[in-house]
Design a protein that fits this description.
heterodimer; A: 437 residues; mainly alpha; 2 domains; two-stranded antiparallel ribbon; 18 helices; globular; B: 379 residues; alpha+beta; Cytochrome-c3 Hydrogenase, chain B; three-stranded antiparallel beta sheet
Chain lengths: 437, 379
């Protein structure tokens, strides 16, 4: 499978990279810097080290790390950075993009074919970017009798709900966008939004197949929300908190899946149903109802729903990690930084190279513990995502009546068994206050 | 204008608030080149009206303007995946009309080609059955493993799908050198490979719970509606033309016809798979018994003619059931009339009876388990 494309030449590849860099520098220096200059000119500048920051000074800061790094550090502690980049949207979107690539390649290997291959020099790694560009460039067609404002708003609302879900996930100690005490309740509230958005999109399209798909999605999500909530109550009972960060921190010695395996299984199955993954992809069953509630969506509206779906997939997998697999806890595998190099600098003969301003960044913000926590979290989440993707290659789709039967009869019963297990553990004094941990 | 003169989609119906009419096809991933008008009440199908005819190509009329040899390439077009079996009754009929005796080796080559083509067709059918049930692995595996047998047919005839290999008087070319060895190897691997499908598809608990007891066609109904082939055998009627009316050398081979009693979608989807295993068995027997050398084709005069006014009806067991060909000759170089009687159309008749009262989710599995090929039904 890992055959290089026949006309691949490494020298050509390097050449194309160099030309890309040249273009990047050219565009940055001709457009980017003047633009920054203009923006800085209009923004009231703060006073730093007793001198007023002017655009000229700001440019000199770019070359001086001891002045730039504190700005970077203060920026990394803002809510904006958390929402946009690291524990929030950007990080989740990056993992979701990785998920799509892994899904396509893994499914291809399972089905004895190649999968994405030509887009991007290595194994079709840029295929997703190409698909995204295609979706952006496509015309958005709206059915004539659709309820247009709602039809337009539904995909945006879908992504917004998924992003709100992502915001509640703690990635490392202290690294969470919204650290609310009622974190798990907030998760339930956000999950409750998805069926509403789905039925809004399906109904407003005013078309038959989306309508059937929307009704199916509504059935599926509403009936699986109850076992979902019940299966997580066990974790709340043994930890005594709804705060997701505290739940993750409470698993420093062992993950809850060891004590509550039934709850973990129930949550995993309901997760598959909430995500509309095979074998529960009834709302999008193509041989019955074309593409279900996505039938009338076109262009980037469809792209937004796909983005929302994969963000939701990441968020559910991360929630499983936080609740049952111990979140960021794990063995310390990241080595300590050589701090004397940062504080004292590197001495090369007569020259001593030292980067000022790096020390507070490395001791306060990006510590080895934080990197290790993120690494553990990502590894566990990727593992869970892998198990979410796997059934797609193995199972056919099930039917609506079988789905409802599973949700209402079997999973709710199992969730109650899980609650009794948790209660027994707490009352026997094994877990909870005064118990293990 | 009353209802019975209108085409199905245009017929006037009583308005009912609860009933929704769905046009499944012709632009739908769950239909072939046809339309199924489905009326649903909630999740239940109240009525169903299959509407074939979107790919009608006038094969029968075309056959009246071409002579017996030039008819061959276009008569295989209805089912290009099963082209040898589609040509088989025509070739048998023309041989009887013209009074040609076929060499022994040609008969064995025909049986081998026919069984290979049955497997090629069934693999394609199985791939679509897999994707209709949402099982994407079962779409890719048969579509890939088909290539083994397509390569064999390419070695024999030179074309991957439309072989045009059967001609009145034998087959077009002799087998390539060293073919027996290659064929045995490929078929053995193919057999091993399709046995693996049981683990991922036929023994899959979700598949079994989804297709068992859905769309049940009882033995009496199957006989009454006149379905053929795998659909008939899945309802417990042991009727295989290779055993009941053996043509060419099938009577010298040990043919086992697979019968199941359930008559549901699961049985109907399993019979073609069992038939593929049986086909591998037949190919191996034929390779063993085939005369190692000899002629494979009787030389015909240019523009052969029938002897006066004459008619002949021949039928064979194709991948979709009994496939008959009625040829009427008036002593000219072209047939006076040619009628293809295909299994697909006979099986489609059962669809409205099976879908009534079923859930909408069962529609793809019941529809495709009928072993129906839209292009063949329209001809």
């Amino acid at each position: 499978m890992s055959v290089i494309a026949p006309d691949f030449k490494f020298s050509k590849f390097i050449q194309s990279l160099i030309s890309d860099v040249v273009w990047f520098v050219l565009i940055l220096s001709l457009i980017g810097f003047p633009l920054i200059m203009m923006i800085l000119f209009f923004i009231p500048m703060p006073v730093i080290d007793g001198e007023l920051l002017t655009p000229f000074l700001a440019f000199t800061y770019l070359a001086d790390p001891s002045r730039t790094l504190p700005i970077v550090q203060s920026f990394m502690m803002t809510d904006m950075f958390k929402i946009m980049a690291f524990p929030g949207f950007g990080f989740a979107a990056l993992l979701a993009a990785g998920t799509i690539f892994v899904e396509r390649k893994m499914l291809a290997k399972l089905q004895l074919r190649v999968g994405p291959f030509y887009c991007g020099k290595f194994e079709g790694i840029l295929q997703l970017m190409g698909d995204g560009l295609k979706l952006i460039s496509k015309e958005i067609i709206i059915p004539a009798k659709a309820d247009k404002p709602i039809f337009w708003a539904a995909p945006v609302l879908f992504v917004a709900s998924a992003a709100a879900f992502v915001a509640l996930i703690p990635v490392a100690p202290g690294w969470v966008v919204a650290d609310v005490d009622m974190g798990l309740l907030a998760v339930f509230a956000v999950i409750g939004f998805f069926p509403i958005v789905t039925i809004l999109s399906a109904w407003s399209a005013n078309s038959k197949f989306p309508f059937i798909g929307g009704i199916r999605a509504l059935f599926q999500m509403v009936s699986f929300e109850i076992p979902l909530i019940l299966s997580l109550l066990g974790v709340v009972m043994v930890t005594g908190t709804l705060n997701l960060s505290e739940i993750a921190a409470s698993q420093s010695s062992f993950p809850w899946i060891l004590f509550l395996p039934v709850g973990a299984i129930v949550f995993f199955i309901t997760m598959l149903a909430e995500l509309e993954r095979i074998p529960f992809d009834l709302p999008e069953a193509e041989s019955e109802i074309v593409a279900g509630w996505l039938t009338e969506l076109s262009g980037m509206m469809y792209g937004l729903v796909q983005l929302g779906t994969y963000l939701k997939l990441y968020a559910f997998a991360a929630l499983f990690t936080v609740l049952f697999l111990g979140g960021w806890n794990g063995p310390m595998i990241v080595p300590q930084f050589p701090m004397e190099l940062v504080t004292e600098g590197i001495t090369l003969g007569p020259i001593t190279a030292k980067i000022g301003g790096l020390e507070p960044l490395l001791t306060q913000l990006i510590t080895p513990e934080m990197i290790n926590g993120v690494l553990m979290f990502v590894l566990k989440t990727v593992g869970v995502i892998f198990f979410i993707l796997l059934p797609r290659g193995v199972f056919p789709r099930i039917r609506v009546d079988m789905l409802l039967n599973l949700g209402w009869h079997k999973l709710i019963g199992l969730a109650f068994i899980n609650i009794f297990i948790a209660l027994a553990l707490v009352y026997a004094g094994v877990l909870g206050p005064g118990g293990l941990q | 204008m009353t209802n019975e003169f209108l085409p199905p989609g245009l017929a006037l119906q009583k308005a009912d608030e609860r009933i929704m009419t769905l046009n499944v096809g012709p632009q739908h991933p769950g239909s072939g080149h046809m339309r199924i008008i489905v009326q649903i009440d909630g999740d239940y199908i109240v009525a169903c009206d299959p509407d074939p005819g979107y790919v009608h190509r006038g094969e029968e009329k075309m056959a009246e303007y071409r002579n017996y040899i030039t008819n061959i390439p276009h008569l295989e077009r209805p089912v290009i995946h099963d082209s040898c079996n589609v040509l088989y009754p025509y070739v048998l009929g023309v041989e009887e009309l013209l009074g040609i005796e076929v060499p022994e080796r040609a008969k064995y080559v025909r049986v081998i080609c026919s069984e290979l083509n049955r497997c090629i067709y069934t693999m394609y059918w199985l791939a679509i059955y897999g994707i209709f049930l949402g099982h994407s692995t079962m779409f890719m595996w048969p579509a890939g493993d088909r290539e083994l047998l397509i390569d064999l047919m390419e070695k024999i005839s030179g074309a991957r799908v439309t072989h045009a290999h059967f001609v009145p008087g034998g087959v077009r070319n002799d087998l390539p050198p060293n073919f027996e060895e290659v064929c045995l190897r490929q078929v053995n691997y193919f057999e091993k490979r399709i046995r693996e499908y049981a683990a991922v598809f036929y023994d899959n608990p979700i598949l079994i719970s989804r297709t068992q007891d859905t769309g049940v066609l009882s033995r009496e109904d199957a006989i009454r509606l006149g379905v053929t082939g795998s659909v008939l055998r899945a309802s417990g009627v042991d009727y295989d033309l290779r055993k009941k009316e053996p043509y060419d050398v099938y009577e010298e081979l040990d043919v086992h016809s697979n019968v199941m009693k359930e008559g549901d979608s699961y049985a109907r989807s399993k019979i073609p798979w069992l038939d593929m295993l049986e086909s591998c068995n037949i190919i191996k027997q034929a390779l063993e018994k085939m005369p190692k050398s000899g002629s494979v084709r009787v030389k015909l005069k240019p523009n052969p003619k029938g002897k006066g006014f004459d008619s002949v009806y021949k039928r064979v067991e194709s991948g979709r059931g009994s496939l008959g060909c009625h040829i009427v000759s008036d002593g000219k170089v072209e047939p006076y009339r040619l009628k293809l009687s295909v299994g697909s159309f006979r099986n489609l008749i059962a669809l409205p009876y099976l879908l009534k009262g079923e859930k909408l989710g069962n529609m793809p599995s019941v529809y495709w388990s009928l072993n129906y090929w839209p292009v063949e039904a329209d001809r």
